[in-house]
Amino acid sequence: MEQGEKPETGSRRKPLLRALAGEPMDRPAVWLMRQAGRYLPEYRALRQDATNFLDMCLTPERAVEATLQPIRRFGMDGAILFCDILVVPFALGRSVAFREGEGPVLEPLRTRKEAASLVTDGVAERLGAVYAAITEIQSSLSPETALIGFAGAPWTVATYMVEGGTNRDFAAVKRWALGDEEGFDVLIDRLVDATVAHLSAQITAGAEVVQLFDSWAGVLPERAFRRYVIAPTARIVTALKTRHPGVPVIGFPRGAGLMYRAYVMETGVSAIGLDSAVPCAIAQRTLQSLVPVQGNLDPLLLVVGGAAMAEAVAAIRASFGGGPFVFNLGHGVLPQTPVENVERLVELVRCAP
Ligand code: 1CP
Fold first, then answer.
1. 38: CB partners within 8 A, 6+ apart
2. How sure is the predictor about 69, in pLDDT bands with cuts at 50, 70 and 90?
3. Nearest atom of ligand 1 to the alpha carbon of 215
4. Which residues contact 230 (CB under 8 A, 6 or more apart)?
């Protein structure tokens, strides 16, 4: 049996794995992007003890605890590893810091020469603490809960590396990507190799599903979307499926709009994460007919709660409930989210339709 493949079949398998395998379900499997984090008081307490955020990701006992906190409270079907997409630039030797209130700060990478000097050998060795956490999490989860590993997709990670942090106009990275395709390909190629190594090591350590977060896929025009989102994702998916057949890869090209269908057809992802702007009826016809879909409650509806949230949950379930489906948000849980709304959401998703 290949690493990561599970011997259980049919109804004995974990609900999340069954949904991702396309099995019909009485109720959808559910987990939430950013289900660990500042909206949880126990996370804020844990975070206070850590010197910095990266240290939290790279200290197995803290990463294990942060991963398990939302599972203890809400019992989701998926536990997502507590880590960050920016551990990959860190493992490539770039400086990465997280400043309070400011977000991530990286040393900007702006030239082909610098991209060519990135060393991808040894990435997985440098992130050994992450895989140690995975093995420990796997041993603490109930037999019903699946462990989700993840990485940022090359384009999204490149935006942080080139801009030097969060920058909502993407001027530097788009200028490079659109104006010097061959030079920018050098950076993307390095990130493809590093991402395959990182995800493959996560699967070997015990991740049963992996998700590629392409949070900024939506800012590219079509030609660049094909070159920097679809093509690198296809290479990562092919490499992972060769090494770990049977381990589902969820693609999340946030904001991809009309490019969602090409992304699904051309990357080979096993399932597709939908952002909240994707109309459910259209996605049901054009995407769920191809692969299982995951999403897509607006995170602000989880902040609002009450009848507005309940109605939106019912509408999403009505659209997707008849096919392969994993309930999630359209993006991450927001820090101002009331904990009781998350409890209520999980109940609503699990009640009879
Ligand atoms: O002090 C803190 O607690 C830092 C806040 C925080 C947290 C809780 C950051 C900094 N990262 C994380 C954890 C994290 N990041 C997870 C954990 C698992 C879970 O989902 O519960 C995951 C999956 C991520 C992924 C991530 N990091 C993405 C992709 C998803 C998305 O939200 O678009 C991105 C873009 C990042 C970069 C990042 N990490 C942290 C910040 C503040 C940012 C910048 C976000 C931005 O530019 O808006």
1. 44, 47, 335
2. very high
3. 33
4. 259, 262, 263, 266, 267
